[in-house]
């Protein structure tokens, strides 16, 4: 009986903290980022998981879902899941706006984990947005 109660307590404790493990939802990130338009240089100084919006130009694809974004203040790596970059055919030279979270790494450069991306359509001069 004691083992069963202990198992129920541990399971309940784990379930109550699941939302802590999951992090912010994409909607929360987009809402917070709308109030936090920053430059690349500013983004590099922000704490982990800060929601941000940046704009710039894609310099190059560095690896699978990883790209380099450049603005007038510098360059930063961005991670754009394939369900976002494939439909838009993301490539070097594209002018984009990205919404995501700052992702700090011990011993490696800060990056942005993108949840929404917009690309300037040169023909219509409008932003085309893609999100998960």
TrEMBL record:
InterPro entries listed in its UniProt record: BOBF_sf, CarO-like
UniProt cross-references to Gene3D superfamilies, sorted A to Z: Bacterial OB-fold
UniProtKB keywords: Signal
Segments crossing the lipid bilayer: none
Signal peptide span: 1-22
The name this protein goes by in its record: NirD/YgiW/YdeI family stress tolerance protein
Organism in which the protein naturally occurs: Acinetobacter terrae
